[in-house]
Amino acid sequence: MRLWSLHPRYLDAKGLVALWREALLAQAVLRGETKGYRNHPQLDRFKEQPDPAAALARYLQVVHAEATRRGYRFDGSKIHAADANAVITVTSGQLEYEWEHLRKKLQTRSPADFEKLALLTEPELHPMFNLQPGPIADWERP
């Protein structure tokens, strides 16, 4: 499971579809609708929110908006009630780690998408994240 801190616009088609599916699974986990993945480290930052499932729903709204912008037909009715004010802090080290991780994936999986990002040095965050200086997240497993 990978819930990117990066804006979903940087993902290739395969990555965006995977993110949608994984975030829907994460939403189910946080709503107590499944027993698997309850302790997955990617969920830690959502669990720290006052309403973890509503924060994850906000995350999903942005993924859905990106998919819609690209002409995909993701079922938005699968997104439960969202907390429009949910904000999660992400560190600069985490952002750098995710950016390099994505670039490596795209370099092999989608060279054309990799080339589009080649000159970009400061990627945009998913809108619900707030950047602060710091190392890679403790829950990340590099």
End-to-end span in angstroms?
A: 14 Å
Please mark out the parts with pLDDT under 50 across 5 or more consecutive residues, or reply none. Answer: none
Shape: globular
Kindly estimate the percentage of residues that lie in beta strands according to DSSP. Answer: 5-15%
How would a crystallographer describe the biggest sheet? 2 strands, parallel
Mean pLDDT: 93
Descriptive account of the structure:
- With 142 residues, the chain is mostly helical.
- The protein is built from five helices and two strands.
- The protein has helices at 13-30, 44-47, 52-69, 92-109, 111-117; strands spanning 88-91, 129-132.
- A two-stranded parallel ribbon has the order 1-2.
- Helix 1 runs antiparallel to helix 3 (52-69) and helix 4 packs antiparallel against helix 5 (111-117).
- The mean pLDDT is 93.
Chain-wise SSE layout:
Elements: H1 13-30, H2 44-47, H3 52-69, E1 88-91, H4 92-109, H5 111-117, E2 129-132
Give a short overview.
The chain is mainly α and 142 residues long.
Relevant terms:
single chain; 142 residues; mainly alpha; 5 helices; 6% strand
